Automatic annotation (TrEMBL):
The chain crosses the membrane at residues 52-69, 75-92, 104-125, 137-156, 163-184, 190-211, 223-245, 251-271, 276-293, 299-321. Coiled coil: none annotated. This is DUF2157 domain-containing protein. Keywords: Membrane, Transmembrane, Transmembrane helix. It comes from the Bacteria.
């Protein structure tokens, strides 16, 4: 992947002209399309099997550090994991630039900082079992979230792993949730609305990254992918809960509403050319269809029909993604469509 900042620096240093930079970008885009297909979302998870090997080793090491630290206290265990994750990233991320281990180590570092602060606050105050939807719990969550944001910023400046932006966005969302919880208390609808609006905010940021890299040849497309993956469940889950879904007792009308929401999400996913939105809402779609097909009175038949319908739906989307996009894109406002990926 070519980073736009590197191209700009090369142009500024007179290594190449602006025309040459544009030509190089177009060459890489076409080369990627030939190599992986024009309608693929290319996200780099592994470069070789060594990525998997290192990831397994890192997991074992972090688990060992956490288990040993737990003999002292939870905050000490989490701190040890965070420190170990940063140390491993200095080699495997900064020097070796290994994708999968870098993702793991980023999550371990930011998560370790979050748990460290949360556990330390609980230890200092001596209050256990604090719920996040109480004023006191909201304060704790906000402090831990602020620490996680700072950790994500520091990690980004040092290593620039694409998923870091999504981790920081998740921490910021936790702070927003904490603020709403401290004001509204246990108002369920207010808390769900806060989560959903945070998800919309993350989606908007993801779209800004996507629109700044329409050709999807820079690191920005990876950043956008992780943001979309975070935004989708934050938007969908509160909507589903506010529909009144109540588990096994879900009514047929509620199931139909979920299916309708999923179909709307499908249209949005096609327009912006991002399959991550569909994956995040898939569990709700399965649950809703299972409810509807239970009307047949045969549980096994209902399950089989659910798998059949969803399987055919996803296979059709996968096989004809760009052809279906070609039908959807004329419905998108022209100004917006011109900033979205071109239909291949």
């Amino acid at each position: 992947m070519i980073e736009k900042a590197d191209l700009d620096a090369a142009i500024a240093a007179n290594v190449m002209s602006e025309a040459q930079g544009a030509a190089l970008t177009e060459f890489v885009r076409q080369r990627h399309q030939v190599a992986m297909g024009a309608d693929e979302e290319h996200i780099r998870f592994i470069t070789s099997f060594n990525d998997i090997f290192v990831t397994i080793a890192a997991v074992l090491l972090l688990v060992a550090v956490g288990a040993l630290g737990q003999r002292v206290d939870t905050w000490f265990s989490a701190l040890g994991v965070a420190v170990a994750a940063w140390g491993l990233a200095e080699y495997f991320t900064r020097q070796r630039k290994m994708a999968l281990p870098s993702i793991l180590l980023l999550l371990a570092f930011v998560g370790g900082v979050f748990v460290t602060l949360g556990a330390a606050i609980v230890k200092i105050t001596g209050v256990d079992n604090v719920q996040p939807d109480t004023p006191q719990g909201a304060v704790y969550l906000g402090i831990a979230g602020a620490g996680a944001v700072a950790a994500a910023i520091a990690h980004w400046r040092r290593f620039q792993v694409p998923i870091t932006v999504a981790a920081g966005a998740a921490a910021l969302s936790a702070i927003a949730f904490a603020i709403v919880a401290s004001i509204m208390g246990e108002d369920r609808n207010a808390l769900l609305t806060a989560v959903s609006l945070s998800g919309v905010g993350v989606f908007v940021v993801a779209m800004r990254y996507d629109m700044s890299d329409r050709q999807r040849v820079t690191r920005r497309t990876d950043i956008a992918f992780w943001l979309h993956l975070l935004a989708a469940p934050m938007i969908i889950h509160p909507l589903v809960v506010m529909f009144g879904v109540n588990g096994p007792g879900m009514a047929a009308a509620e199931a139909v509403a979920i299916v309708a929401v999923y179909l709307i999400i499908t249209v949005v996913a096609l327009a912006i050319d991002r399959r991550a939105l569909l994956v995040s809402g898939l569990a709700y779609m399965i649950f809703a269809l299972q409810t509807l097909f239970k009307e047949t009175g045969d549980v096994d038949l209902g399950f089989a029909l659910t798998c059949l319908v969803i399987g055919l739906f996803l296979v059709t989307l996968s096989a004809a993604w760009q052809r279906i996009r070609a039908v959807v894109m004329p419905l998108v406002p022209r100004d917006l469509a011109e900033r979205l990926p071109v239909v291949a």
